[in-house]
Amino acid sequence: MNAELKREISKRRTFAIISHPDAGKTTLTEKFLLFGGAIQTAGAVKSNKIRKTATSDFMEIEKQRGISVATSVMGFEYAGKRINILDTPGHKDFAEDTYRTLTAVDSVILVVDCVKGVEEQTEKLMSVCRMRHTPVIIFINKMDREGKAPIELLDELEEKLQINTRPLSWPISQGQTFKGVYNLYTSALNLFEANSSRISETLVKIQSPQDPELEKWIPESFCKKLREDIALIEGVYEPFNEELYRDGLLAPVFFGSAINNFGVKELLETFLSIAPCPYERDARERTVFASEEAMSGFVFKIHANLDPNHRDRTAFFKICSGRFERNKFYYHTRLKKKIRFSSPTHFMANEKSIIDDAWPGDVIGLYDNGSLKIGDTLTEGEELQFRGIPSFSPEIFKLLENHDPMKTKQLDKGIRQLTEEGVAQLFVQHGNRKIVGTVGELQFDVIKFRLEHEYGALCAFTPLRYKKALWVTSDNKESLGEFLRRKSNLIVFDREDHPVFLAESEWMLKTAQEDYPDIEFHTTSEFK
Ligand code: GDP
Fold it and tell me: What span, in angstroms and rounded, lies between the C-alpha atoms of 113 and 24?
């Protein structure tokens, strides 16, 4: 293998920090960037939360779009490694965007609030990671607050997230009396100090939990409890198995307090030593290895029209193999044509800069005039289509109605471009009835606002009763044809013209499944 390629791959760690809103994702991201020297002051990373404020939600959404471009990818160097953090929107209405971003990472760090435990968004995000066998490290945050007991939290993680856990650090008390954590991996004692600006941690090397040195640093009653806890943990858990972690079957757990920069360095360094560098990825045709010399990658996100005066679109492109070069022609496998990029950009914390080359694991911004869609693959000529960027069933469906017949063209173009950007999914029925599906109500406000401001088109949405979209296939062409005919009022077509069945209830879906045993119903668009 090309030595340079090998070196660049082994240097890279591409991951996402995910959490239920308010668990501490932004705070932790910021601390990581401080360690990497990518930012100098706390507060530099803007939270990408949409806050309900007195000002219009639309303005918040617009601000949010600006912020999320700046923080979509944060790249920095630390300890000789190139780290790429991909940001995910916190708001649940933007869950689709988060799911897609998760298709572009090699591992994740999941932040859990010790007071709240596993929350709804945590469970959903984790189910996407499980589907893809993404390696997960869990950081239990806010140990400076009185929260749930650590053992209780571990049980909750295992039960609700359906993953085996293995604590690698253990807290000594919590809340007011929080003393620090004992690192079970390196046998070091990390003493807690409430201070958000420091970078160093006070580490004391201990031989074992029995070491009398321990009493010098923490009160006796806490030592006793710690020894009991460790005995219990070592009795219950197998030693940490890195292979199981990398297969996405075991999640190591750390405890700390992001705001106090406590346990963060420990987390970052363990992450760097165990998290995988870019690895292989499945395309429809074959598995592609990061170490292959020919460049390949896919688009997982598109940002459009940030400046309404310029129809600019940035496609976020994840490199899967080989070396990406500026100005080189690449093969667009969906359009079957060659295109090149004269100003690809890297994202470095708050700045964008034009780059000459990039490597597997990197995410670069490609300026696009409309030829790239989410899920598109670029190669050096091979016919490949990367998998793993499916559409998931929306939860809310509405009929799109045109309110200005003079602007039909603008509306059509606008809705097509916004759905290509992944804001929502568009389904077409009976020729031209357009049904928009989303995960959250907020999306409809976003679409309406953007259609008006960016495309000059006025629209309204009428709620529909559907609850779920199911992609349908069958080995039996006749049965499929009959099903599509008989259920034609419930059949729509996605952007690739695949038939989709809209169900109004679980019961309706069950009945259809029973009535049509030859038909397969898929909950995501990727089923081949
Ligand atoms: P996000 O929504 O997950 O990005 O959460 P943020 O990073 O914005 O944090 C949410 C709130 O929790 C903020 O007010 C933080 O200051 C606070 N926070 C973050 N980490 C800690 C911590 O370790 N201890 C305490 N007490 N508060 C924290």
Answer: 7
